[in-house]
Amino acid sequence: MAADTFFYLLISALSLAGGLYGAVHALLNSRDPRSAAAWVAICLFIPFAGLLAYLAIGKNRIRTRARRLQVPADSSQSGERLALESADAEHLIAPEYRNLAYLGRAASGNALLAGNAVEPLLNGDEAYPAMLAAIGAARHFVHLASYIFDSHGVGAEFVAALSAARARGVQVRVMLDGFGELYAFPRVGAALEEAGIELRRFLPLRLFPPALGFNLRNHRKILVIDGQQAFTGGMNIRNKHRSSADGQSPRVLDMHFRVLGPVVQQIDAVFRADWAFCGGAVPEAPETLPLPVGDAECRVIVDGPNEDLDKLLWVLVGAIALARSSIKIMTPYFLPPRELTVALQTAALRGVEVTVILPASNNFGFMSWAATHSLGELLEAGVRVGFFRGPFVHTKFFLVDDYYAHAGSSNLDPRSLRLNFEMAVEVYDQVVGRRLAAHFAASLARSSVLSLEQWRRRGLGRRLRDAFFWIFSPYL
Q: Which phi and psi angles does 90 have, rounded to 5°?
Protein backbone atom coordinates (compact mmCIF):
# COMPACT_ATOMS: atom_id res chain seq x y z
CA MET A 1 0.00 0.00 0.00
CA ALA A 2 1.37 3.39 -1.00
CA ALA A 3 2.35 5.73 1.82
CA ASP A 4 -0.03 8.46 0.67
CA THR A 5 -2.92 5.99 0.58
CA PHE A 6 -2.11 4.75 4.08
CA PHE A 7 -1.91 8.32 5.32
CA TYR A 8 -5.28 9.17 3.74
CA LEU A 9 -6.93 6.13 5.31
CA LEU A 10 -5.40 6.95 8.69
CA ILE A 11 -6.69 10.54 8.60
CA SER A 12 -10.12 9.32 7.48
CA ALA A 13 -10.28 6.77 10.29
CA LEU A 14 -9.24 9.35 12.89
CA SER A 15 -11.78 11.82 11.53
CA LEU A 16 -14.58 9.25 11.65
CA ALA A 17 -13.56 8.17 15.14
CA GLY A 18 -13.58 11.80 16.27
CA GLY A 19 -16.98 12.39 14.73
CA LEU A 20 -18.32 9.27 16.44
CA TYR A 21 -16.90 10.46 19.76
CA GLY A 22 -18.59 13.83 19.38
CA ALA A 23 -21.92 12.24 18.40
CA VAL A 24 -21.87 9.81 21.35
CA HIS A 25 -20.86 12.53 23.81
CA ALA A 26 -23.64 14.84 22.59
CA LEU A 27 -26.16 12.02 22.77
CA LEU A 28 -25.25 11.15 26.35
CA ASN A 29 -24.73 14.64 27.75
CA SER A 30 -26.99 17.13 25.97
CA ARG A 31 -29.96 18.27 28.06
CA ASP A 32 -32.08 19.30 25.06
CA PRO A 33 -33.11 16.59 22.56
CA ARG A 34 -33.09 19.09 19.70
CA SER A 35 -29.55 20.14 20.52
CA ALA A 36 -28.48 16.50 20.86
CA ALA A 37 -29.98 15.61 17.47
CA ALA A 38 -28.30 18.56 15.76
CA TRP A 39 -24.85 17.79 17.17
CA VAL A 40 -25.14 14.08 16.40
CA ALA A 41 -25.96 14.91 12.77
CA ILE A 42 -23.17 17.49 12.47
CA CYS A 43 -20.53 15.22 14.01
CA LEU A 44 -21.49 12.22 11.86
CA PHE A 45 -21.92 13.96 8.51
CA ILE A 46 -18.99 16.39 8.73
CA PRO A 47 -16.82 14.53 11.25
CA PHE A 48 -13.68 16.67 11.53
CA ALA A 49 -15.24 20.14 11.30
CA GLY A 50 -18.24 18.96 13.31
CA LEU A 51 -16.07 17.65 16.13
CA LEU A 52 -14.08 20.91 16.28
CA ALA A 53 -17.30 22.94 16.42
CA TYR A 54 -18.69 20.68 19.12
CA LEU A 55 -15.54 20.95 21.22
CA ALA A 56 -15.54 24.75 20.87
CA ILE A 57 -19.18 25.58 21.57
CA GLY A 58 -21.15 22.41 22.16
CA LYS A 59 -19.37 20.36 24.79
CA ASN A 60 -20.11 21.56 28.31
CA ARG A 61 -16.71 20.69 29.74
CA ILE A 62 -16.99 23.03 32.68
CA ARG A 63 -19.60 20.91 34.44
CA THR A 64 -16.90 18.61 35.76
CA ARG A 65 -14.16 21.20 36.08
CA ALA A 66 -16.38 23.62 37.95
CA ARG A 67 -16.89 21.23 40.82
CA ARG A 68 -13.53 22.56 41.96
CA LEU A 69 -15.40 25.77 42.71
CA GLN A 70 -16.83 24.10 45.78
CA VAL A 71 -14.38 25.31 48.42
CA PRO A 72 -14.32 23.26 51.62
CA ALA A 73 -15.85 25.03 54.57
CA ASP A 74 -13.32 26.86 56.68
CA SER A 75 -13.08 24.87 59.89
CA SER A 76 -11.86 27.98 61.67
CA GLN A 77 -15.15 29.79 61.19
CA SER A 78 -16.46 31.15 64.43
CA GLY A 79 -19.73 30.13 65.97
CA GLU A 80 -20.89 33.68 65.35
CA ARG A 81 -20.41 33.30 61.58
CA LEU A 82 -22.14 29.93 61.47
CA ALA A 83 -25.02 31.36 63.46
CA LEU A 84 -25.29 34.23 61.00
CA GLU A 85 -25.50 31.85 58.05
CA SER A 86 -28.21 29.74 59.69
CA ALA A 87 -30.37 32.66 60.80
CA ASP A 88 -32.87 32.85 57.94
CA ALA A 89 -34.87 36.08 57.86
CA GLU A 90 -37.80 34.53 55.99
CA HIS A 91 -40.17 35.39 58.83
CA LEU A 92 -39.47 39.12 58.25
CA ILE A 93 -40.69 39.32 54.66
CA ALA A 94 -44.29 39.71 53.50
CA PRO A 95 -46.16 36.40 54.02
CA GLU A 96 -47.21 36.12 50.38
CA TYR A 97 -43.55 35.88 49.31
CA ARG A 98 -42.33 33.35 51.85
CA ASN A 99 -42.68 30.44 49.43
CA LEU A 100 -40.34 32.36 47.12
CA ALA A 101 -37.89 32.76 50.00
CA TYR A 102 -38.03 29.00 50.63
CA LEU A 103 -37.30 28.41 46.93
CA GLY A 104 -34.33 30.78 47.07
CA ARG A 105 -32.91 28.94 50.06
CA ALA A 106 -33.36 25.54 48.40
CA ALA A 107 -31.81 26.72 45.12
CA SER A 108 -28.86 28.63 46.54
CA GLY A 109 -28.10 26.95 49.84
CA ASN A 110 -27.68 30.44 51.31
CA ALA A 111 -29.62 31.95 54.17
CA LEU A 112 -31.80 35.00 53.65
CA LEU A 113 -30.08 37.64 55.76
CA ALA A 114 -31.66 40.70 57.35
CA GLY A 115 -30.13 44.11 58.01
CA ASN A 116 -28.80 45.05 54.58
CA ALA A 117 -28.74 48.30 52.62
CA VAL A 118 -28.77 48.26 48.82
CA GLU A 119 -28.16 51.48 46.89
CA PRO A 120 -28.64 51.68 43.11
CA LEU A 121 -25.89 53.68 41.37
CA LEU A 122 -26.59 55.09 37.90
CA ASN A 123 -23.87 54.88 35.30
CA GLY A 124 -20.18 55.28 35.88
CA ASP A 125 -20.72 58.84 37.09
CA GLU A 126 -22.18 57.48 40.33
CA ALA A 127 -20.69 53.99 40.51
CA TYR A 128 -17.01 54.57 39.74
CA PRO A 129 -16.35 57.39 42.26
CA ALA A 130 -18.02 55.30 44.99
CA MET A 131 -15.98 52.23 44.07
CA LEU A 132 -12.70 54.16 43.86
CA ALA A 133 -13.41 55.85 47.20
CA ALA A 134 -14.07 52.46 48.79
CA ILE A 135 -10.77 51.11 47.43
CA GLY A 136 -9.05 54.22 48.73
CA ALA A 137 -10.46 53.61 52.22
CA ALA A 138 -9.65 49.86 52.29
CA ARG A 139 -7.60 48.75 55.31
CA HIS A 140 -7.38 44.96 55.00
CA PHE A 141 -8.28 43.58 51.57
CA VAL A 142 -9.81 44.39 48.20
CA HIS A 143 -11.39 41.66 46.06
CA LEU A 144 -12.25 42.74 42.51
CA ALA A 145 -13.69 40.65 39.67
CA SER A 146 -14.69 42.14 36.32
CA TYR A 147 -15.61 40.67 32.97
CA ILE A 148 -14.30 43.67 30.97
CA PHE A 149 -11.69 46.00 32.45
CA ASP A 150 -10.37 48.86 30.30
CA SER A 151 -6.65 49.57 30.56
CA HIS A 152 -7.03 53.30 29.90
CA GLY A 153 -9.21 56.10 31.23
CA VAL A 154 -11.27 54.91 34.19
CA GLY A 155 -9.49 51.55 34.00
CA ALA A 156 -6.17 53.30 34.62
CA GLU A 157 -7.76 55.09 37.59
CA PHE A 158 -8.74 51.73 39.07
CA VAL A 159 -5.24 50.34 38.49
CA ALA A 160 -3.77 53.37 40.29
CA ALA A 161 -6.20 53.01 43.21
CA LEU A 162 -5.49 49.30 43.52
CA SER A 163 -1.74 49.92 43.34
CA ALA A 164 -1.97 52.60 46.05
CA ALA A 165 -3.96 50.22 48.26
CA ARG A 166 -1.32 47.54 47.86
CA ALA A 167 1.43 50.08 48.65
CA ARG A 168 -0.15 50.84 52.02
CA GLY A 169 -0.32 47.15 52.96
CA VAL A 170 -3.80 46.17 51.75
CA GLN A 171 -4.12 42.66 50.27
CA VAL A 172 -5.37 43.25 46.71
CA ARG A 173 -6.70 40.41 44.56
CA VAL A 174 -8.05 40.95 41.03
CA MET A 175 -9.72 38.31 38.88
CA LEU A 176 -10.30 38.81 35.16
CA ASP A 177 -12.20 36.65 32.74
CA GLY A 178 -9.76 35.13 30.24
CA PHE A 179 -11.93 36.13 27.27
CA GLY A 180 -13.40 39.37 28.61
CA GLU A 181 -9.89 40.77 29.16
CA LEU A 182 -9.39 40.72 25.39
CA TYR A 183 -12.01 43.45 24.89
CA ALA A 184 -9.45 46.09 25.90
CA PHE A 185 -6.09 46.77 24.24
CA PRO A 186 -3.55 46.88 25.64
CA ARG A 187 -4.74 44.30 28.14
CA VAL A 188 -5.11 45.58 31.67
CA GLY A 189 -3.54 42.45 33.14
CA ALA A 190 -0.07 43.66 32.19
CA ALA A 191 -0.55 46.92 34.11
CA LEU A 192 -1.90 45.08 37.14
CA GLU A 193 1.01 42.64 37.17
CA GLU A 194 3.49 45.48 36.73
CA ALA A 195 1.97 47.11 39.82
CA GLY A 196 2.57 43.89 41.76
CA ILE A 197 -1.12 43.15 42.21
CA GLU A 198 -2.11 39.53 42.71
CA LEU A 199 -3.96 38.55 39.54
CA ARG A 200 -5.85 35.46 38.37
CA ARG A 201 -7.53 34.79 35.03
CA PHE A 202 -10.68 32.70 34.69
CA LEU A 203 -10.24 30.07 31.94
CA PRO A 204 -7.71 32.02 29.84
CA LEU A 205 -7.58 31.13 26.16
CA ARG A 206 -4.35 29.52 24.99
CA LEU A 207 -3.00 27.46 22.12
CA PHE A 208 -0.52 25.29 24.04
CA PRO A 209 -1.79 23.34 25.81
CA PRO A 210 -5.07 23.89 23.95
CA ALA A 211 -7.77 25.76 25.88
CA LEU A 212 -10.10 27.32 23.34
CA GLY A 213 -13.47 27.20 25.11
CA PHE A 214 -15.06 30.54 24.20
CA ASN A 215 -18.48 29.78 25.67
CA LEU A 216 -17.85 29.31 29.37
CA ARG A 217 -17.12 32.69 30.88
CA ASN A 218 -17.17 34.33 34.30
CA HIS A 219 -19.56 37.24 33.82
CA ARG A 220 -19.76 38.24 37.50
CA LYS A 221 -18.87 41.76 38.62
CA ILE A 222 -17.76 41.88 42.25
CA LEU A 223 -15.93 44.39 44.40
CA VAL A 224 -15.60 43.61 48.12
CA ILE A 225 -13.82 45.93 50.55
CA ASP A 226 -12.65 44.49 53.89
CA GLY A 227 -15.66 42.18 53.95
CA GLN A 228 -17.79 45.18 55.00
CA GLN A 229 -19.16 46.59 51.76
CA ALA A 230 -19.57 45.31 48.23
CA PHE A 231 -20.45 46.53 44.75
CA THR A 232 -22.13 44.32 42.18
CA GLY A 233 -24.45 44.47 39.19
CA GLY A 234 -23.96 44.58 35.46
CA MET A 235 -21.38 47.34 35.00
CA ASN A 236 -17.94 46.61 33.63
CA ILE A 237 -15.01 48.99 34.15
CA ARG A 238 -15.15 50.99 30.92
CA ASN A 239 -15.07 54.63 29.84
CA LYS A 240 -18.31 54.10 27.94
CA HIS A 241 -20.26 54.03 31.20
CA ARG A 242 -19.47 57.57 32.33
CA SER A 243 -19.88 61.07 30.94
CA SER A 244 -17.07 62.46 28.86
CA ALA A 245 -15.02 65.51 29.80
CA ASP A 246 -17.02 67.73 27.44
CA GLY A 247 -20.25 66.93 29.25
CA GLN A 248 -21.65 64.39 26.82
CA SER A 249 -23.80 61.65 28.32
CA PRO A 250 -22.45 58.11 28.67
CA ARG A 251 -22.46 56.01 25.52
CA VAL A 252 -23.74 53.08 27.59
CA LEU A 253 -26.39 53.50 30.29
CA ASP A 254 -26.10 51.08 33.18
CA MET A 255 -26.79 50.49 36.85
CA HIS A 256 -24.61 49.11 39.62
CA PHE A 257 -25.37 48.50 43.29
CA ARG A 258 -23.58 49.28 46.54
CA VAL A 259 -24.36 46.64 49.18
CA LEU A 260 -23.82 46.92 52.92
CA GLY A 261 -24.70 44.47 55.66
CA PRO A 262 -24.43 40.75 56.39
CA VAL A 263 -25.04 39.65 52.77
CA VAL A 264 -21.59 41.08 51.87
CA GLN A 265 -20.23 37.89 53.45
CA GLN A 266 -22.05 35.79 50.83
CA ILE A 267 -20.80 38.00 47.98
CA ASP A 268 -17.22 37.67 49.21
CA ALA A 269 -17.63 33.89 49.46
CA VAL A 270 -18.44 33.81 45.72
CA PHE A 271 -15.22 35.67 44.92
CA ARG A 272 -13.14 33.44 47.17
CA ALA A 273 -14.54 30.29 45.54
CA ASP A 274 -13.86 31.62 42.03
CA TRP A 275 -10.37 32.67 43.11
CA ALA A 276 -9.66 29.14 44.28
CA PHE A 277 -10.92 27.77 40.95
CA CYS A 278 -8.42 30.03 39.17
CA GLY A 279 -5.56 28.51 41.13
CA GLY A 280 -5.20 30.97 43.97
CA ALA A 281 -4.97 29.99 47.60
CA VAL A 282 -8.35 30.34 49.26
CA PRO A 283 -8.33 33.71 51.05
CA GLU A 284 -9.32 33.54 54.68
CA ALA A 285 -12.73 34.94 55.52
CA PRO A 286 -12.56 38.27 57.37
CA GLU A 287 -12.61 38.04 61.13
CA THR A 288 -15.04 40.95 61.55
CA LEU A 289 -18.54 40.24 60.30
CA PRO A 290 -20.48 42.98 58.50
CA LEU A 291 -22.95 44.64 60.83
CA PRO A 292 -26.67 45.16 60.10
CA VAL A 293 -27.12 48.60 58.55
CA GLY A 294 -30.50 48.59 56.79
CA ASP A 295 -33.91 47.02 56.39
CA ALA A 296 -33.45 44.86 53.27
CA GLU A 297 -33.50 41.08 53.43
CA CYS A 298 -30.97 39.75 50.91
CA ARG A 299 -29.43 36.54 49.63
CA VAL A 300 -26.87 35.66 46.96
CA ILE A 301 -27.78 33.22 44.19
CA VAL A 302 -25.01 31.96 41.92
CA ASP A 303 -25.61 30.37 38.56
CA GLY A 304 -23.29 28.63 36.12
CA PRO A 305 -22.74 25.62 33.86
CA ASN A 306 -21.89 23.34 36.78
CA GLU A 307 -24.00 22.03 39.63
CA ASP A 308 -25.49 25.53 39.88
CA LEU A 309 -27.03 25.20 36.39
CA ASP A 310 -30.61 26.54 36.16
CA LYS A 311 -30.79 27.70 39.78
CA LEU A 312 -31.30 31.31 38.80
CA LEU A 313 -33.90 30.24 36.26
CA TRP A 314 -35.80 28.31 38.97
CA VAL A 315 -35.95 31.40 41.15
CA LEU A 316 -36.99 33.68 38.29
CA VAL A 317 -39.83 31.37 37.31
CA GLY A 318 -40.90 31.09 40.95
CA ALA A 319 -40.92 34.86 41.38
CA ILE A 320 -42.99 35.33 38.22
CA ALA A 321 -45.48 32.71 39.43
CA LEU A 322 -45.95 34.56 42.75
CA ALA A 323 -46.21 38.06 41.26
CA ARG A 324 -49.42 39.79 42.29
CA SER A 325 -49.47 43.13 40.49
CA SER A 326 -46.41 43.81 38.31
CA ILE A 327 -43.25 42.41 36.78
CA LYS A 328 -40.65 44.87 35.50
CA ILE A 329 -37.63 43.69 33.50
CA MET A 330 -34.75 45.70 32.07
CA THR A 331 -32.12 43.80 30.13
CA PRO A 332 -29.94 44.48 27.08
CA TYR A 333 -30.28 40.93 25.75
CA PHE A 334 -33.66 39.20 25.90
CA LEU A 335 -33.89 35.64 24.58
CA PRO A 336 -35.74 33.93 27.43
CA PRO A 337 -35.78 30.13 27.53
CA ARG A 338 -39.11 28.44 27.00
CA GLU A 339 -39.80 28.05 30.72
CA LEU A 340 -39.40 31.77 31.30
CA THR A 341 -41.48 32.71 28.27
CA VAL A 342 -44.38 30.54 29.44
CA ALA A 343 -44.14 31.95 32.96
CA LEU A 344 -44.32 35.53 31.65
CA GLN A 345 -47.24 34.68 29.37
CA THR A 346 -49.11 33.04 32.23
CA ALA A 347 -48.53 36.00 34.53
CA ALA A 348 -49.81 38.45 31.93
CA LEU A 349 -52.88 36.30 31.21
CA ARG A 350 -53.85 36.23 34.89
CA GLY A 351 -53.78 40.02 35.08
CA VAL A 352 -50.25 40.85 36.21
CA GLU A 353 -48.80 43.89 34.45
CA VAL A 354 -45.68 42.55 32.73
CA THR A 355 -43.35 45.10 31.11
CA VAL A 356 -39.98 44.56 29.46
CA ILE A 357 -37.64 47.39 28.45
CA LEU A 358 -35.00 46.63 25.82
CA PRO A 359 -32.52 48.93 24.07
CA ALA A 360 -33.63 50.39 20.76
CA SER A 361 -29.95 50.65 19.84
CA ASN A 362 -28.07 47.46 20.68
CA ASN A 363 -24.30 46.94 20.56
CA PHE A 364 -25.00 43.58 18.92
CA GLY A 365 -27.70 44.09 16.32
CA PHE A 366 -28.24 40.38 15.81
CA MET A 367 -29.31 40.07 19.47
CA SER A 368 -32.13 42.56 18.88
CA TRP A 369 -33.14 40.83 15.67
CA ALA A 370 -33.31 37.41 17.33
CA ALA A 371 -35.19 38.86 20.31
CA THR A 372 -37.72 40.59 18.06
CA HIS A 373 -38.64 37.30 16.41
CA SER A 374 -39.60 35.79 19.75
CA LEU A 375 -41.68 38.73 21.01
CA GLY A 376 -44.88 37.84 19.19
CA GLU A 377 -46.20 35.26 21.64
CA LEU A 378 -45.44 37.56 24.57
CA LEU A 379 -47.26 40.47 22.92
CA GLU A 380 -50.22 38.21 22.21
CA ALA A 381 -50.45 37.36 25.92
CA GLY A 382 -50.47 41.03 26.89
CA VAL A 383 -46.83 41.58 27.80
CA ARG A 384 -45.79 45.18 27.12
CA VAL A 385 -42.41 45.66 25.42
CA GLY A 386 -40.68 49.02 25.19
CA PHE A 387 -37.53 49.95 23.27
CA PHE A 388 -35.50 52.66 25.00
CA ARG A 389 -34.61 55.55 22.70
CA GLY A 390 -31.13 56.87 23.33
CA PRO A 391 -27.76 55.37 24.25
CA PHE A 392 -27.38 51.62 24.51
CA VAL A 393 -28.99 50.46 27.77
CA HIS A 394 -26.91 47.78 29.49
CA THR A 395 -28.97 48.00 32.69
CA LYS A 396 -30.26 44.71 34.05
CA PHE A 397 -32.67 44.21 36.88
CA PHE A 398 -35.78 42.17 37.63
CA LEU A 399 -38.51 43.60 39.87
CA VAL A 400 -41.71 41.98 41.15
CA ASP A 401 -44.50 44.01 42.75
CA ASP A 402 -42.02 46.84 43.44
CA TYR A 403 -40.82 44.77 46.39
CA TYR A 404 -38.71 41.81 45.27
CA ALA A 405 -35.69 42.54 43.07
CA HIS A 406 -32.61 40.95 41.54
CA ALA A 407 -29.41 43.00 41.39
CA GLY A 408 -26.81 41.13 39.41
CA SER A 409 -24.89 40.37 36.26
CA SER A 410 -27.26 38.08 34.37
CA ASN A 411 -29.08 38.88 31.16
CA LEU A 412 -32.18 36.94 30.20
CA ASP A 413 -30.64 34.93 27.39
CA PRO A 414 -29.21 31.41 27.01
CA ARG A 415 -25.61 32.59 27.38
CA SER A 416 -26.26 34.10 30.80
CA LEU A 417 -28.66 31.43 32.03
CA ARG A 418 -26.84 28.36 30.70
CA LEU A 419 -23.20 29.16 29.83
CA ASN A 420 -21.91 32.04 31.95
CA PHE A 421 -21.03 32.10 35.61
CA GLU A 422 -23.39 34.72 37.01
CA MET A 423 -24.43 36.11 40.38
CA ALA A 424 -27.61 37.81 41.57
CA VAL A 425 -28.47 39.37 44.91
CA GLU A 426 -32.09 38.84 45.92
CA VAL A 427 -33.50 41.95 47.58
CA TYR A 428 -36.76 42.05 49.55
CA ASP A 429 -37.30 45.74 50.31
CA GLN A 430 -39.97 48.31 49.45
CA VAL A 431 -37.55 51.26 49.49
CA VAL A 432 -35.23 49.66 46.94
CA GLY A 433 -38.25 48.48 44.98
CA ARG A 434 -39.69 52.00 44.76
CA ARG A 435 -36.35 53.42 43.58
CA LEU A 436 -36.04 50.81 40.86
CA ALA A 437 -39.69 51.29 39.87
CA ALA A 438 -39.14 55.05 39.53
CA HIS A 439 -36.10 54.47 37.31
CA PHE A 440 -38.11 51.97 35.28
CA ALA A 441 -40.99 54.43 34.81
CA ALA A 442 -38.60 57.17 33.66
CA SER A 443 -36.99 54.75 31.21
CA LEU A 444 -40.36 53.59 29.90
CA ALA A 445 -41.33 57.22 29.26
CA ARG A 446 -38.33 57.42 26.91
CA SER A 447 -39.23 54.18 25.15
CA SER A 448 -41.27 53.27 22.09
CA VAL A 449 -43.81 50.62 23.03
CA LEU A 450 -44.13 47.87 20.41
CA SER A 451 -47.68 46.81 19.62
CA LEU A 452 -48.68 43.38 18.35
CA GLU A 453 -49.91 44.97 15.14
CA GLN A 454 -46.54 46.68 14.57
CA TRP A 455 -44.75 43.39 15.19
CA ARG A 456 -46.97 41.64 12.65
CA ARG A 457 -46.47 44.38 10.03
CA ARG A 458 -42.72 43.81 9.75
CA GLY A 459 -41.73 43.28 6.15
CA LEU A 460 -40.74 39.88 4.81
CA GLY A 461 -37.06 40.80 4.74
CA ARG A 462 -37.05 41.82 8.39
CA ARG A 463 -39.00 38.75 9.44
CA LEU A 464 -36.57 36.45 7.59
CA ARG A 465 -33.58 38.22 9.11
CA ASP A 466 -35.02 38.05 12.64
CA ALA A 467 -35.96 34.39 12.29
CA PHE A 468 -32.57 33.47 10.89
CA PHE A 469 -30.68 34.90 13.86
CA TRP A 470 -33.26 33.48 16.28
CA ILE A 471 -32.24 29.97 15.12
CA PHE A 472 -28.81 30.60 16.66
CA SER A 473 -30.19 32.03 19.91
CA PRO A 474 -28.76 29.19 22.08
CA TYR A 475 -25.26 30.38 21.13
CA LEU A 476 -25.69 34.17 20.91
A: -60, -30
| DSSP string over 162-194 | HHHHHHTT-EEEEEEETTGGGGSSS-HHHHHHH
283 with 346, same domain: the answer is no
Domain span holding position 439? 311-475
The contacts of residue 317 (CB under 8 Å, 6+ apart) are: 339, 340, 343
**Paired residues of 231 in beta bridges:** 223, 258
Sign of CA dihedral 409, 415, 303, 326: positive
Q: Give the count of beta carbons closer than 10 Å to the beta carbon of residue 454.
A: 11
pLDDT for res 225: 97
End-to-end CA distance of the chain: 48
Angle between helices 123-137 and 154-167 (to 10 degrees): 10
Contact 471, 365 (CB under 8 A): no
Question: How many other C-beta atoms lie within 10 A of the C-beta of residue 169?
Answer: 9
* Nearest residue to 410 via CA among 154, 218, 257: 218
Please name every residue paired with 223 in a beta bridge, in sequence order, or none if there are none: 144, 231
| Domain tally, the chain | 3
Residue 126 sits in the same domain as residue 228: yes
Amino acid 75: pLDDT: 33
> How far apart are the C-alpha atoms of 440 and 424, rounded to whole Å?
19
CA distances (Å), 446 to each of 245, 355, 386, 396, 440, in order? 25, 14, 9, 17, 10
Residues of the chain with pLDDT under 50: 61-86
- Give which of 341, 344, 314 is closest to 328, Cα–Cα: 344
Give the HSE-up count for residue 432: Cα atoms under 13 Å, Cβ half-sphere.
29
Closest CA to 394 of 221, 224, 272: 221
Confirm if 323 and 83 have CB atoms less than 8 A apart. Answer: no
